[in-house]
């Protein structure tokens, strides 16, 4: 799914791939977190880090809420504005 989405970000400045952002958001929804507001608290959560294949001790934190919203909305808006 992530490979089908536009990513206008400068690749040299990207810390979190679209795939990682989307997977984190999907996992949050599956765990009952209906919006991205809890991402800041969950970005260090061991269960989410393990599921996203991050090392518990040395792995980078997951993305925060300000990182999730642009990816989700940019792609929702691009899909909804396509003719069809």
Describe this structure in words.
It is a single chain. The chain is mainly α. It has one domain (16-74). Helices cover 46% and strands 0% of the residues. It contains four helices and no strands. The longest helix is centred in the last third of the chain and has 16 residues, at 65-80.
Q: State the helical fraction.
A: 40-55%
What is the residue-averaged pLDDT?
Answer: 81
**Beta-strand level of the residues, as a percent range?**
under 5%
The end-to-end span amounts to 19 Å
Pfam families: DDE_Tnp_1_4 (PF13701)
Protein name: Transposase DDE domain-containing protein
InterPro entries: Tnp_DDE_dom
Domain Transposase DDE: 2-68
List the helices and strands and how they pair.
Elements: H1 18-30, H2 39-42, H3 46-51, H4 65-80
Helix pairs in contact: 1-4
How would you summarize what this structure contains?
Pfam families: DDE_Tnp_1_4 (PF13701). It is built from four helices and no strands.
Key attributes of the depicted protein:
mainly alpha; Transposase DDE domain-containing protein; single chain; Tnp_DDE_dom; 0% strand
